[in-house]
Amino acid sequence: MFEQFEWAPPDAILGLTEAFLRDRNPAKINLSVGVYRDENGVTPILDCVKTAALRVVEQQTTKSYLGMQGSPAYAAAVLDLLFGRAHEVVASGRAVAAQAPGGTGALRVAGDFIKTMFPTAKIWLSDPTWANHRGIFQAAGVPIETYAYFDAKRSALDFASLLQAIEQMPAGDVILLHGCCHNPTGVDPTPEQWEQIAAAVHQRGVLPLLDFAYQGFAEGLEQDAVGLRALAKPGCEMLVCSSFSKNFGLYNERVGALTVVAETKEAAEKAMSHVKLRIRTNYSNPPAHGAAIVTTILEDDALRAQWHQELAAMRSRIGEMRGQFVEALAAAGVARDFSFIVAQRGMFSFSGLTKAQVDALRERDSIYIVGSGRINVAGMTRENMGTLCAAIARVLAD
Ligand code: LMR
What we know:
Elements: H1 14-22, E1 29-30, H2 47-59, H3 72-83, H4 88-91, E2 95-100, H5 102-117, E3 123-127, H6 131-139, E4 144-148, E5 150-151, E6 156-157, H7 159-167, E7 174-178, H8 191-204, E8 207-212, H9 226-231, E9 238-243, E10 256-261, H10 265-282, H11 289-299, H12 301-331, H13 340-343, E11 348-350, H14 355-365, E12 367-368, E13 374-376, H15 382-397
Parallel strand pairs: 1-12, 3-4, 3-7, 7-8, 8-9
Antiparallel strand pairs: 2-10, 5-6, 9-10, 11-13
The structure holds (2S)-2-hydroxybutanedioic acid.
């Protein structure tokens, strides 16, 4: 039965990591997958995570299943981080969170929830968006539309077209918005623009689904929640898919959450009863370890303060690399103005390199960049910067 198959296409992002691992060139550079690396090119385990993990292992008494919704203490910690404990949506009980295996797990459960509960709804994705969004919602059977987001000529947000697109979306559809550090462009709305987006979305009767995977990577934990909090207006509904892969460096522990914000506490709990059914048929219940680490850190003042510092250090290293990248490109003789890269936020730089240039960099120099031209700035180091920029200068001159 299997012999009739054609090869499946490689994944747009993780397929590049597979190719990178097969590449024998000792000078190879992986700037594809969104994983933080330190100055030595290593993805570190945060010190607060190490301390908390040891504590979890020492104190745990069972490996029995968690409930379908996961740990209640973890859910409370998630809501606290997203909205702040005193926020009306938390205090009223109209926000409820389910633990999920990473942001991707949360998105897939959200997709299944949308398909089951709103069978005629379409989901609107930004153009461009994270390569896996389309695959996830296609797999869930939710029809996909796109809305204008990025003005490639100005390397900036096309705000007028974005607002115009929202104003034409049918009520009852779902709009996926990136909470911060838009993936792949690194271009986010300003706080004022978020207010306008939130007003337009709610006025239109469109359900916002916020993909929030990079909280703390743009300006700080609170500042980066400005979009989420603009959407969380009295009486308004939303879904949030959040992830702790990046901000806690817990990539392979798969720690995320799906949060439902409804009009009332009862409506939120009713919606969560359906989310739980979708979880049950996906993976039954979530893995415990990573979420226990996050809960331990967020519930302990000293560990939480240490986490804030370690997160700030990651953010600031990425900022430094952005500046050095722009300078090193100029030093390598690149005439094109790349200064917009300094203003982009989060891990990624949307470089404007074409697919052909990206392919040439991979084939000639073993430099791995996503086909859209998205470069993981967090993979740059002082050591690989010269090689990288010289290679980019060569492809731009071709
Ligand atoms: C990325 O965009 O590179 C990350 O979110 C990792 C992934 O799963 O694609």
